[in-house]
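Reply to dn_fold:

You asked what the input looked like. This is it:
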Amino acid sequence: MSLSQPEIERYSRQMLIPRWGLEGQRKLKASKVLIAGLGGLGCLSSLYLAAAGVGKIILIDKEKFDLNNLNRQVLCSHRDLGRFKAEVAKEKLEALNPEIEVEAIVLGITENNVSDVMRDADVIVDGLDDWRTRFIINDYCVMRGIPFVHAGVSEFYGQITTLAPGNGPCLRCIFLREPPEVKVVPVLGATSALLASLQVMEVIKLITRIGKPLIGRMLFIDGEETVFETVEIMRNANCPICATYKSK
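and this is what came back:
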């Protein structure tokens, strides 16, 4: 896949990174990334993936912007309140980078529609705030062999891991039971921004094959004490979802 001269100029700084170059940028242009949820994580991750030149970005969210979103959901301005998040985000990303394709889907993800809305993405990014939907996507990703970059935030704290079917645990290996849902999650916008930026790095590493993704590892962040800790996470041989999965 070729790059135009404006694209080469636009991405010139990141193309200077060793082992990136034209080939890495072509890989990004040829890729399709789906972002499930456009809260604090999804807004920031979609913004930087668009800036990096991911060729197609699919945005899925069923909600509209509220005033209490504005401390962290940076794709929303005051005049966008009451509009669907996916539609607003599509406009903002296309304005930032007209070289890419952005698709907005105003829909909630369920067991019945997950195979239709995932659209054979190369990577799926977790921008969700509910565990039930995370597990629906996890199960789909295992079935289709699609990497799933999970992150979660609360207050000053966050966690992130990359789930790659056949090469590490899935979400159900890590959480034997679905964690309890929290109706309103307290969160600092900068916490979401930090974890979303790390998600973007994970996506880019997966696509360009540069660096070592967080597969089989989970990074925990304590922003209150400024402590970062990485722990190994193992695949569960008895996992009801991925125990029988074989790498393609």
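The mean pLDDT is 95.
Hope that clears it up.
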